[in-house]
Specification:
- With 340 residues, this protein is of the alpha/beta class.
- Helix content is 39%, strand content 16%.
- It is built from 11 helices and 12 strands.
- α7 links the parallel β6 and β7.
- The chain is elongated.
Length: 340
């Protein structure tokens, strides 16, 4: 987000003014931090809100932003719940729905030769939604889901879940978790279900560089991550924070920020409803392509110039072409498959 703000301002700002950002903590689904800080942003007069990353957290304050008529763009929400949410009129996301990730995850597991699957998922909108779409895709493609275990994300031990998996003896295990994986994974290994014995599959919520496992513990494990390869944007992000080690959803965050600025420029206004009404226009096909992934690799300055000249644009970002449907969902997206 900070990299995008800098690029917008280096290009002359939006409507001739510098763009400013106010960072607030989104907390997690077990706190009310997100709602409190969303209220703080409303009181500050925010024209748009970026985030939260967690689907469950965004659902805590989407109604409040809708009631205030403030655009919300998440770079990382993947829960299918947003597609038909009754307060979704001001909501967009630059990450794909888990309908797609579930299909890719199921395809990958089956392609690796596994016929039976146990799924462990945290109990929130993200976990249960991705579980549903993974299960449906896996079974529609001929596999058998032999266990669906939904757990309390605040649990401090997972021996019971590991025992449940051991009892059904699946070919593969899908872990739809956040950082609870730090506790869950060793329990599975202790139960004789380690990645050297079973196929292990992870998802965007638990692909992390922060685990304190023994070297080689996750060897062979695969994971799915919505979004493009972040390599093209890494140096830009490292210029903002040289200590950055996780680039997940970096491209999507950058593009979410830029698109808000371009929408305001196109609308000729920072009114949030005007921004909302221009979001699809600046990203959809039909206009002049511009942006970091455009064929001639034009920058944000070129997008702003075209808009100031009254031209229609089609922003091509670091996360690829961003074309939204009427629900603020991407009509096409990339899912990466990674292996340890």
């Amino acid at each position: 987000v900070d990299a995008a703000i800098q690029d917008l301002n280096d290009a002359g700002g939006v409507l001739g003014a510098c763009v400013s950002v106010s960072h607030q903590d989104s907390g997690d689904t077990e706190t009310d931090i997100a709602s409190e800080n969303a209220e703080a942003l409303i009181q500050e007069g925010a024209h748009a809100v970026i985030g939260a990353a967690s689907s469950g957290v965004s659902l805590q304050f989407i109604d409040r932003l809708f009631n205030e008529g403030i655009v919300q763009v998440s770079p990382a929400n993947t829960s299918p719940a947003f597609t038909t949410h009754e307060s979704g009129a001001y909501y967009f996301r630059t990450a794909p729905s888990d309908v797609l990730q579930g299909r890719v995850l199921a395809d990958t597991i089956l392609a690796d030769g596994h016929e039976t699957l146990a799924i462990l998922a945290l109990q929130d909108a993200y976990g249960t939604g991705l579980l549903e779409y993974t299960r449906d895709a896996f079974e529609s493609l001929g596999g058998e889901v032999v266990l669906e275990e939904v757990y309390d994300p605040n649990a401090s031990e997972f021996a019971a879940e590991a025992a449940s998996v051991a009892a059904v003896d699946p070919d593969a295990i899908a872990m739809i978790t956040f950082n609870e994986c730090q506790l869950l994974a060793p329990e599975l290994a202790n139960a004789g279900l380690g990645p050297d014995v079973k196929g292990w599959y992870m998802v965007d919520g638990n692909l992390s560089n922060s685990y304190e496992f023994d070297a080689g513990f996750l060897e062979g494990v695969k994971g799915t991550l919505p979004g493009v390869d972040p390599a093209p944007i890494q140096q830009k992000l490292l210029a903002q924070d040289p200590n950055l080690a996780d680039f997940s959803y970096g491209a999507e965050s950058y593009d979410a920020t830029v698109l808000i600025g371009l929408a305001a420029q196109a609308a000729g206004s920072t009114d949030s409803t005007a921004i909302r009404d221009s979001m699809v226009a600046v990203s959809g096909p039909g206009g002049t392509q511009c942006g970091p992934s455009a064929p001639d690799n034009t920058g944000i300055a070129d997008c702003l110039r075209l808009l100031s000249e009254g031209e229609d644009i089609d922003y091509e970002g670091y996360s690829g072409p961003i074309n939204w449907d009427q629900n603020g969902d991407l009509t096409a997206a990339t899912i990466g498959i990674y292996q340890s």
